[in-house]
């Protein structure tokens, strides 16, 4: 391009002169599809959505892997009951820890002697570490890999969007107006970088009345769906506030939780083959 400043790392144009090449997985890994789960704000349920998605695909017979890219706040091992387990390696590379139902999981917490030890790293080091979780770990044959991202639009999302060959992203939000505004930043970041957006998963969407089973919108009056459609997207999963779901995560039993809330999102992802 005539007005090119040759700063490929901050450019969304697709041209022949681009110098950023996508990373390749380990030579003993064969990963067919990769999806990142993102949000502009913390605490909205990215790890929950990642866990439910991975479990849903696993139950359908697919081979599934998860990269926990939220390096300083990893929670995926907790959801899958991997407390106290550690990733091991040999001369070929590192191996993920496998959940009881066969989901291959790699997280910073699986490399620590004490899961409560904080990881105090600068952004550049965290970015390099996330890349290594993709390139140096032997995942084997994987149909679907899900990357649980940290919140925001900083170093890690930029690294994943630029360096890892993802097929698309799932945006997670809760229905509050403020959260929706912040999440819009992630949506716009993805659009600026030409990353396909599969759709939106709404966490804490409602609560069911224990007496009449009516859905109660605790945090909003339905404007959330309108806001999502304003961005040209659809809400593909509505996850309720459910004490049993929270208990399953706390007890490391997310794989045992029976729900159909992810079915529509799973179907859309399957049809994108």
Topology record:
Layout: E1 30-38, H1 46-59, E2 64-68, H2 76-79, E3 88-90, E4 93-95, E5 97-98, E6 104-107, H3 123-135, E7 141-148, H4 155-163, E8 168-173, H5 177-192, E9 197-203, E10 207-208, E11 215-216, H6 223-230, E12 235-239, H7 243-250, H8 263-270
Parallel strand pairs: 1-7, 1-8, 2-6, 2-7, 8-9, 9-12
Antiparallel strand pairs: 3-4, 5-6, 10-11
- Which CATH class? Alpha Beta
Q: From the 3D structure, determine the CATH topology.
A: Rossmann fold
- Biggest beta sheet attributes: 8 strands, mixed
Helical proportion, percent range: 25-40%
- Structural class by sheet pairing and helices: alpha/beta
What is the strand tally?
12
Calculate the mean pLDDT score and round it: 88
Name of the CATH superfamily: P-loop containing nucleotide triphosphate hydrolases
Q: Count of helices?
A: 8
Backbone CA Rg: 19 Å
Entry keywords:
single chain, 273 residues, alpha/beta, Rossmann fold, eight-stranded mixed β-sheet, two-stranded antiparallel ribbon, 12 strands, 29% helix
Description of the structure:
The protein has 273 residues and is of the alpha/beta class. It has a single domain, classed as 3-Layer(aba) Sandwich (Rossmann fold), CATH 3.40.50. It contains eight helices and twelve strands. The protein has helices at residues 46-59, 76-79, 123-135, 155-163, 177-192, 223-230, 243-250, 263-270, and strands at 30-38, 64-68, 88-90, 93-95, 97-98, 104-107, 141-148, 168-173, 197-203, 207-208, 215-216, 235-239. The strands form three sheets. It has an eight-stranded mixed beta sheet, sandwiched between helices. Strand 8 (168-173), helix 5 (177-192) and strand 9 (197-203) form a beta-alpha-beta unit. Helix 3 packs parallel to helix 4 (155-163). It is globular, with a radius of gyration of 19 Å. The mean pLDDT is 88.
